[in-house]
Amino acid sequence: MMQGKILDYNDDMKSGFLRDEAENKYHFFTGDCTNPEKLEMGADVEFIHDGEKATNITVIEKMKDTSASEARHTKETLAKKSKKSISALLILILILTIGALVAIVIFSEMQKNKLKEVQTHYETQIENIKKYLLEGDCMNAASEYHNAANTRNEIYKYGAYYSIETHAQHGHSIEIAECFGNAKDFSNAIKMLDIKNANDADYFNRAAIIYKQAGEMESAQEATNRAQEIIP
After folding, report:
1. What is the dotted CATH code of the domain comprising 2-59?
2. Domain parsing of the chain, residue ranges
3. Cα separation of 110 and 30, whole Å?
4. What class is the 108-230 domain?
5. What pTM did the predictor assign?
6. 172 within 8 A of 129, measured Cβ to Cβ
7. Ordered mean pLDDT values, 10 residues apiece, the chain (232 residues)
8. Is-same-fold flag (2-59; 108-230)?
């Protein structure tokens, strides 16, 4: 079999010419082609010849080079999918970020509201202590003082802080101790004193009196010394 190319083809005349690889020219008829529907100028063919006549012609179908097109299409498809994935991821991150910020704001507001609620409760307990002291009810005053101390610890958990000394001042611990002292209940009076965490000369002087009344002379002297350190 020889190979060549269609030079000319007239469908009306059902004939044409082709040329082989050596530039030799041959005449042919449509009936000499096995797949005449594919006859066209420039088509590659295989044939045999009889003199100057080509016979047994077969038009060679070119394989379409789709690899580059498919690769380009695949690349474009992947690029689109990648963009969509990135966009979806960014949207998800944005949603999660907004959600986290909203959650933080809500939690912060809840903490503020809870702190306000606890502080209000603490102030109510302090007012109760004052009321009990005016009534001379030392025991309930002391009990409410310790309840307020627990509330103070809860306030600390929500971000505010009252020192032990500040609580003692707010809660009138020295007044409660004096209430017990006036009632000769020195055991409970001494329980209300805390000269280690205090830093007030008046507190130390008043505590020294209670310690002396209770016969705790060493503690009384310590309280006096502490007072003199502040006010020589």
Report:
1. 2.40.50.140
2. 2-59, 108-230
3. 92
4. mainly alpha
5. 0.54
6. yes
7. 92 92 93 92 92 93 61 76 84 92 89 88 93 96 93 81 68 93 96 90 95 96 94 77
8. no
Place of tokens 């060549």: 4
Q: Which two tokens stand for residue 51?
A: 């003199």
